[in-house]
Amino acid sequence: xxxxxxxxxxxxxxxxxxxxxxxxxxxxxxxxxxxxxxxxxxxxxxxxxxxxxxxxxxxxxxxxxxxxxxxxxxxxxxxxxxxxxxxxxxxxxxxxxxxxxxxxxxxxxxxxxxxxxxxxxxxxxxxxxxxxxxxxxxxxxxxxxxxxxxxxxxxxxxxxxxxxxxxxxxxxxxxxxxxxxxxxxxxxxxxxxxxxxxxxxxxxxxxxxxxxxxxxxxxxxxxxxxxxxxxxxxxxxxxxxxxxxxxxxxxxxxxxxxxxxxxxxxxxxxxxxxxxxxxxxxxxxxxxxxxxxxxxxxxxxxxxxxxxxxxxxxxxxxxxxxxxxxxxxxxxxxxxxxxxxxxxxxxxxxxxxxxxxxxxxxxxxxxxxxxxxxxxxxxxxxxxxxxxxxxxxxxxxxxxxxxxxxxxxxxxxxxxxxxxxxxxxxxxxxxxxxxxxxxxxxxxxxxxxxxxxxxxxxxxxxxxxxxxxxxxxxxxxxxxxxxxxxxxxxxxxxxxxxxxxxxxxxxxxxxxxxxxxxxxxxxxxxxxxxxxxxxxxxxxxxxxxxxxxxxxxxxxxxxxxxxxxxxxxxxxxxxxxxxxxxxxxxxxxxxxxxxxxxxxxxxxxxxxxxxxxxxxx
Length: 617
Known about the structure:
- The protein is an alpha+beta fold.
- It is 33% helix and 30% strand.
- The protein has an eight-stranded antiparallel β-sheet with strand order 11-10-16-7-8-15-12-13, with no helix packed on it. A six-stranded mixed β-sheet has the order 2-3-1-4-5-6, sandwiched between helices. Strands 17-22-20-19-23-24 form a six-stranded antiparallel β-barrel.
- A hairpin with a 5-residue loop joins strand 23 (332-337) and strand 24.
- The termini are far apart.
């Protein structure tokens, strides 16, 4: 079963409500005032079942005084039924409703000419086709109907079925949102909200957030068209039982969602569009009424690069709202003048969380202008986000958008100029610049301290000053594949070999010479390194392994230490256990050196002491 949402549109008293009743059997005028006045004031709801298709119908008011209610019903529809009376023709509210449908990017439209028993519909159809003009969706079907005689109703159902068959089913993005348009209580059940569900499934027991109030609640029960459900599907009219909340907590315009770690924003950047038929300009800093989903609030407009937006033009603008709005990237909305008397523009969201960004900076300008060219192109949206933000965790990238996590993951692997490492996505240019910075930190460390084996990792992290510790670790891991070696908390270029600084080189030469004169019986530490430079050089030679420290006062050249061990091993292997005195004679050294040396051999596992003799282990 394909689930879709249809909304009516058209001038007051052109027969929208009567047509819905003729199609569904439901009178959508439920308010006493509507019955008394004979006009629709608020949204009405019905269900039309067609073969393989379930259509939730939203009947909207046509009177200009209730246009805000009309727009509240169009927040997430798949197609529109534009109603024009044959005895009236195209009227002012027909024009405004048609503008609104275009601004909201409604995918498909069917025109129903009503009251065809009262006038010749042929003339009206010609006038309507002229008004519709060249439409991006191709030729829009027009059906002649009469509720009084029943003429055309069957054809209208067939036409709706054909159009619905072309439309894709409402997608499941894993990001359900329900735009609340009714709130009421039922005795023994509690608070009920209704709205159009889009973007994903809603299940019994789900924990949901309500924005912009930032409230949390649990879904106790679900219904669609008076039928209880365990799972509500996207593209359905859905009633949700929220017993944890009070009626006054949830005004019309609330967005119910399961999207986590995201909240509403008061500052939104968008691409605005004005119809060529509107003769009035829209000036910079204008205060307007913004209609989004089922919500309405006041906002002030700041245009990016001009003082006014003329009819037929598009422009990037920042909207500073008096109330937070839970909008997604790519969402469409309507702007009406401050008095709420006329529709003046439509828009599409380019940045749903613009607070804290510098609107007219070069970075933000490039970001918004690139998105304005292709506001629905996923690779463009990903690339612009990373070009501006440099890096992001994959799970949060475009979380407030019309794309699923799977779509975003797939697009990331195919998008050029993007680097993926673990759960991190980064702009390629930025990533390379950070890697070069890290390499320079290490190179500078080698130059400043050539005597060190490497640069301490904490120095690299501090120099990079990245906002997320995970990034630092990923950059360091990246360097391991670029000719750098990570060892014992330090990182070095793979071909780096510690060497004495120029100032200590003479002292190092003297140390090597002194140790070479009597390799098995070297001078004491005080004689070997009497000065501070000599002591520094000696520490370096020990750190690099060129010199071995036997005790606090005794140092041997490592080559000499190795030869002494080889000589002792050969003697014990040939002659068997030997005393310290015998080994001292073999080595030609002093007792001052021999005893620390033999103890070191014991510790290293070369020899074992048994009484006054030593044997090979």
